[in-house]
Amino acid sequence: MPEEYRKMVFSSSELFRAAEEFCQGVGTLLDGDDVVEVALTGDHEPPCRLHYTTGIQKSPTRIDLTRDQLAAALIQYCRRRKIPVPRGGEKVLKIDDGKVALLVHVGE
Q1: Element of type H or E holding 59
Q2: Any domain includes 100
Q3: Chain-centre distance for alpha carbon 61
Q4: Domain assignment of residue 50, yes or no
């Protein structure tokens, strides 16, 4: 069986949208919350940090996303936009030079 390797590199605006949608979906961000920044912290834990304000609290609060949460956010982002991501594939998150990539391997 042939093996397949895919590398999906996400822009900063795609990362922003994916993280925001994920946090809204799991309930850590509410409707009135306003995300002001999504930053990659590097290749260590946690690799992604969101800064947001609420309707009540104007100073930014933060949410840290683990590698698994960030990968889930990117996979959900792809699925919502009809970008195919194999369910059975091995998925690895890679962070390089301020960019995040999702590597997918299908095969032996």
Answers
A1: none
A2: no
A3: 18
A4: yes
Q: What is the pLDDT of residues 32-54, one digit of tens each?
A: 889 999 999 876 788 999 999 98
Cα of 66 vs its chain's centroid, Å: 9
Q: Report yes or no on 35 lying in a domain.
A: yes
Tell me the per-residue pLDDT of 80-102, one tens digit each, with 9 for 90 and over: 999 999 888 899 999 877 889 99
Q: Structural domain of residue 39, as residue ranges?
A: 12-85
What's the CA gap between 92 and 11, in Å, rounded? 17
How many angstroms separate the CA atoms of 86 and 106, rounded?
Answer: 8
Number of domains in the chain: 1
> What pTM was computed for the model?
0.89
Mean pLDDT of 22-34: 90
User: Does residue 93 form part of some domain?
Assistant: no
Q: Distance between CA 78 and CA 72 in Å, rounded?
A: 10
